[in-house]
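Review form for a predicted model. The reviewer records the input and the model, then writes brief findings.
Reviewer: anonymous (R2)
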Amino acid sequence: MIPQELIKKVRQIQIYTSRAVNASFAGQYESVFKGRGMQFEDVREYMPGDDIRTIDWNVTARTGKPYIKRFVEEREMTVIFAVDLSASGRFGTLDKTKNQLAAEFCAVLAFAAAKNNDKVGLLIFTDQIELFIPPKKGSGHVLRLIRELLYFQTPKKQTNIPLALDYIAMVARKRAVVFVVSDFIQADSTSSPQADFKKSLSLLNKRHDCVGVCVSDPAELTLPKAGIIEFTDAETGEIITIDTSNSDFRRQYEGASAERFSQLKKLLRSINVDCISISTGKPYINDLIQFFHQRHRRY
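Model under review:
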């Protein structure tokens, strides 16, 4: 039985996304994700003027006459959301957590995909594969994905991004647009994330169109001046006490946070993976539209 509170939340997101995903938004979504390629349809006899590069040599050899391959444009796409719902995503200092923000962000793009008659799939991961729903069409399917994102509960679990990327590489046979939605915080990682998932993401991006979606909260960038605070690491359970009134510490914290995000963006650029940064502290639709505009200009 689905809790009434969850049904209400899904309905709220559906209403919000129906307003956000207007004709203009859906058009921008369609224009920036190319991925459509050409799909083989059948063969026919060669005619003067045909491109010899399309000759089907196997059929030609069997029949003794030259035949060419005919292709049709693929008009539907496959979109897969790989969403990190580890324990660190339960953090949020404003009106929503990072995991809730991730769910709403995916909902907007999923409904845009549904309007475009694209297939949408979902992978939920922590330090293991929690759930995989194969891509399908339809708004009813999208509503199921949103329910799974909102309903998912995890104990104190950590993050394994390479595991998720390698899993998608194994199950996604057809070229897809893959949104990797995460705060990219791994408890066992160093200050630089390169060693953790660069190779897996680079390999996946060669077969698919990958987009990194970095989810954050304002307090992860700037600590409030609130005196002595006890912090608990959501993924490891480690407890530390910090004096946030210490200006030197706050400055070091802000510098380290800014460097971490800078290194992440630099990593993604180095392997030609686009990045969208969203925060619980501001509307993500603006970030998404800006991303559409930047990508449209580039292509």
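Findings: Confidence is low (pLDDT under 50) at residues 189-194.
Further findings: The chain has two domains: 4-31+76-298, 38-73.
Recommendation: see findings above.
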